Amino acid sequence: MKKIILALTLLNFISLKTIAQDFYADSLSKVASNSKIDEKKVKTFIELAKYQQTFLLNYDTALIVLNTALTIAEQNKLYTLQAEIMYLQAISFGNTIKFTQKYTLVQRAILFCRQHQLKAPEADLLLLLSKVISDKNDSVKLIINQSLNISLQNNLIDQQINALAAKANFVAAKQPDSAKALFALALSLSRQHQLHQSEVTLLQTIAKTYSLNHWGDSATYIMQNAMNTAHENGLVNEEIISLNALILSERGYFIRDSLNTYFERLVNLCRKYKRDSVAFMQASTLSYQDIGNYPKALQISLALLRLHKSKNDSTNIQIDLYQIALSNNYSLQYKKAIAWYNEAKKYSQQSFHYIFIHDDLAHCYLELNQKDSAKYYADSCYKIATAFYGSEANIYGGVLNDLGTTYLALGEDSLALDYLRRSYIFFTTKSIEYQNYTGSTQGLADYYKKHGNLDSSYYYARLSLNTARDKGFLKFIFSSSAIVSDYFLKHHNADSAYYFQQVGFDAYKTLYNHESTSEFQNLAFAEQQKEQNLAVEKKLAEEQYASNLKLYGLLGLLAVGLIIGVMVYRNNRNRQRSYELLKKQKSEIDLQKAKLEDSIKDLKATQTQLVQSEKMASLGELTAGIAHEIQNPLNFVNNFSEVNKELISELVEEVDKGNTEEVKTLANNIKENSEKINHHGKRADAIVKGMLHHSQSSTGKKELTDINALCDEYLRLSYHGLRAKDKSFNATIKTDFDKSIEKINIIPQDIGRVVLNLINNAFYSVDEKKKKAPQGPKRGAEYLPTVTVSTKRSGSPSGAEGLLISVTDNGNGIPQNIVDKIFQPFFTTKPTGQGTGLGLSLSYDIIKAHGGEIKVETGEGSGSTFIIQLPIA
Fold first, then answer.
1. pTM of the complete model
2. Residue 94 pLDDT exceeds 90
């Protein structure tokens, strides 16, 4: 009972430790968001990304943070920080992108460093590149040496240490002595320059290399040295990483007696310094499982499950459920394991764990002798793995190993051998994972033993046993030693047989001792009892809540009834008042409505009068111009008529004299004058007809019109009209017509009014400026009022071909504060009585109706240009 209470206390203790796990990340985020200095903000983002990578394993989040930091760094040309960000981006991508993409990413970062002469980041990136192309030995060696040369040439101590470590790691498998010498040189450099951070990182690297090369005891000693150095120099993150590496190294085999101590120290550090401990705790369960401490593994997983359920973290919930099921599986509690596996199966189907859930379910059903179910889950596992990895050739070796063992037990030996061989090849060529390698060799040993090939069985069993004893894999020590012992027994070597039998028995006792099994069962029972108590408490709380709800409902109904009664009384009392008030308001509204309708009628009448006034003003100006135009041909008609009268008198005299030649000459002159009279008469007739045509109201029908001729005609009419009103008025007229423009489909009366209005405004502007301009040679160059009308082809607002009509003057221009108002109805800059303010408004409406635009380009004191854009239909 004491053990149960102790276990439950530990569960609550662990849960409390993980509550503040995101505090450090949140603090970094706040510093970054509140910082006003860009460089400081970028550095904080980098620290946040590193924390996401190392402690939370959130590589996607790290990439988002790094992208933000990179944008700020690029904007402020922080080249060194840009290079560091690129390095971290390549790490965060990990295995999520293809080799070619990763290679290109790192190469681009190296070129960036060379472009900006960043030697230290270049050396770091070269070492990262050597890891990307790790299967190309010649290239890896060349790149590591290149990084080392840059470090030596530029006296970069940190980079020298990293390059020496990389070189040592590269030669460790074939030249262990050289590797140790290189590691020693790097370690001496870090200590000589008191680079404690580099020293700890180097010690961690050495420990990992030693572990991969079967120097497990030395690896543990070196990692302990890294942990102590980090602790002595206050390097919290490195101390945590070293502790985690110790716990996971060889799955806790070399520190089995200190595993609890290191685990507690790791969790306490995370709690004290606000670091996330969840990922480390999840990983620690593997070590506890592998040394046979299933109760502790179960305790941790149950605590994490509570935490992740409170956060609704479905990904980690599935992992926790899987670990709980695995602990039950290893404890031979197969039925309970199946229940937990089925619970985990409800979550993500796209995860790595989902594959092994089916794999382990097949194993559990096999142990329960339910072979049909075992085969179903084994087949499902292979299908899911094929879909997950993209093809059968890419399936992870651990999956193949477990399936091989399962199919061997099911009697499908040929399929089992295929999977076991593929698994063995995977872990001897593609990836060094000793636990899975041990499983593969154990599976092959079982296969060959079943088929009577004792030598092959013994060969693979010894491979499995040697690795299992080196790494401390108790389960495989037990199973492989049995095969080795049986082999020696059949070869009449009793001493060896007994020795290996004892090795297996000792491993079995450690794995499945009575005390550990009882503790595990008691813990599971306590957890079940706790769940039942929680369920009962929840039910009682729900019943109490329902009872309270009924009581509160009744009281609520009484309160509502009372409130309704008061409201009805008040409503009845206020209704009469409201009715009288509404009647009064209605009469006032009717009166205001009548006044408003009268005002609207007056306004409409005024608007109509103003519009008519504008039209009459335009017509008056047009008429004056036309009258001036008619006067010219009439003068010609009168003059030639007088001349003809005199010529006829002379003709009669010459006839009387009989002078035939002179008569013919006079007759020809009379004929020519008559033709001129006829020509100018027709010209006057055309002007009159044009006047009548343009003075008529618009018919709204479009006609094919020569826009150049239209603009030229209205320019002359406007000029002569103003000259007729004011003899002192004078201005230079310029035209620039695009002769390539063909006739366009417009309403000529409407467009003519627009052009006339713009030209009249232009003449008014230059005339006003001339009146105010200083005159005379002593005042400088005399002001020359000029109005230019031009046409040209252009793109229309819709993107189709169109034309532009421009009216430009060098007058006073339009002040910027009123430019936006000039197209508003009744807005005018002319003195009172000289303009209605409707000309530009009507022009704007006419051009819009033609599908075009009208705009102005102006500067105060520098003239204006009004531009009409029309589509060519």
1. 0.47
2. no
